[in-house]
Amino acid sequence: MKRAYKYLPVYTGDVSGVCAALYELGGMVVIHDPSGCNSTYNTHDEVRWNYKESLIFISGLNDEDAIKGNDFKFIDDICRAAESLNPKFIMIVNSPIPYINGTDFNYISKAVFRKTGIRTYYIGTNAMHDYTKGCSDAFLSIVEKILGPNSEKQFGIADEIFDLATNDYQELVTLEKNVTNKEDFPGSLTNNKQVENPSNRNNVSAENPSNRNNVSAENASNRNNVSAEVKSSDENLQGDTFSKISINLLGITPLDFPKEFKTNELRNYFTGKGFNVISSWSVNTSLEEISQFKKADVNVVLSSSGLAAAKKIEELYNIPYVVGVPIGEYGNYLCERIREVCKTRKSEISYLNKFNEITENNDDNLSKNIKNDNVYLVGEPVYMSSLKAAKILEGNNLESSYKTVCLTELHKGLLNDNDIVCTCEEELIEVIKDADYVVGDPLIKKLCKKDVTFTPIVHFALSGRTGEYMIENGLC
Question: Is the pTM of this model over 0.85?
Answer without folding.
Answer: no
